[in-house]
Amino acid sequence: MILLVIHALLLLLGTPGLDMLGKNLYTKAEDREKFTQRYGVVLAQIAFGFTTFNREVRLPLTDIFEPLQRPFRISQNWNLYRDGPNRLWRMEILVDDRLVYRSVDEEYDWMELPFRNRRLRPMVEAVIQEKDATNWPGLVRFIVRHAREDFPDAQRVEVRAMVGNFPGRKMSLDHGFYAEAPKWDAKKLPEPEPAAPNNGATP
Amino acid sequence: MSRLWRWWVERCDREVDLRPIALVRILTSLCLILDLSRVAQLGLIDDFYRPYALGGLNRSPDTAYILDQLLPAATAGYWAYGVVLVCMALAMLGVGARPALIIGVLFSAQLGHLHPGGDRAVDRILRFTLLMLAFTDAHRCWSLAPGPRQTHGKGWPMDMVRFVLVLVYLSAGIGKPLTEPDWFATSGTPVLYRIFTDPMAAHMDPYTWLNYQWLLRIAGWGTVIFESAGFLILTRFAPYWALIGVTMHLGIFYTMDLGMFSWGILSLYPLLFAPWIEKIGKR
Lengths: 203, 283
What we know:
The structure holds 2 protein chains of 2 kinds.
Chain A: H1 2-13, H2 29-39, H3 41-69, E1 88-95, E2 98-102, H4 112-116, H5 121-129, H6 136-150, E3 156-164, E4 171-180, E5 187-188
Helix pairs in contact in A: 2-3
Chain B: H1 2-13, E1 15-17, H2 19-41, H3 45-49, H4 67-70, H5 73-93, H6 97-114, H7 121-133, E2 152-154, H8 156-179, H9 191-196, H10 213-228, H11 238-255, H12 261-266, H13 274-282
Antiparallel strand pairs in B: 1-2
């Protein structure tokens, strides 16, 4: 009986399809109305049934059992790779205005292996794709420390988040960070002109 | 109803060949050892497992990180790193495996809480598996531990791992088209093209692969169909389904920079190939 309950709980905590639904999905009358108009009454009722079940049964249960899973860090938040980015992003690092690193560029491969390590790569990805990512000061400090070790005469280190349409013929600066001698405090680069909107289409 | 219940009880009580489970014990532990050794090889232990205030990378550890309250904050992460390595080595050898598995999982979780950005889905799946292995007699097969050897033992803990694998694959298969309908698009840029040529996570050349978008489109459909058929893990078709899985994970390993993800998941595949492993064992 215990095993059956555990299987049922595993299913509830990680229900495929529901695990990606937001808590407040279709709670507003206008959203429900729009969905009903677009997909019809029958499909809408089914969809709202799932979102209500998710909100009122599954997520509260997840909250109850989360503390039990926390010591082992096994809660079922897999968030496996679902789709790629709509635009192509690359990190560039310049030491005293000289390019030393560019993502997946054999010519500029300073620190390539650490940046591609699976425990650091997601942090790099987050900082490059989101200008206000929580860990940008930590990552920039990490880069600056290693740059100062490998380029002892360096006076300035700059980290740039470059973005462009696939396949990346024309890239432009989205945001960036820098640090300068002698204090080496990490700062954000001034905001560049806003880039044109893009739907991810390959030119 | 009683027939169904009897089936369930018999299924949970049944004895299974321990060799596939022992293989999972060895391979998952080995994966974690190699993965953590890679961190040391790249000289990143200090960056990952030191508090932010002392120069570490991560600004916001989870609230569940408690080792710094039990040990000096500056060295707590290093201790956890060392304990996981030792525990995984013991688990792999089958020596003191049960305590090693449980302690190893607890300390690996602490490493994850300390550096959440570097603790991925595969870590959670492997920790769950290692925890379940502690309930098996896998350490009595292919191990250096003293004591009697066993070829058969309880199967329910690994049934749970299989079940979680079903949820993982189904979740990926159902989630993909729900979050990105382009997975089934017949025109436009294939989603797999964006994934395989994303310089932040993969290393395929975006220019070269522009010419093979048709291939990536078909591979994308295949991926969603394959993952959505994850329920086959619970049937006798599991080994055949797993053959496709091996191909997919090798493809991911070849094209993307996800570290031990592919090997970690493949280390669980002996469970899916169990009928074939048993056949080979009987010869």
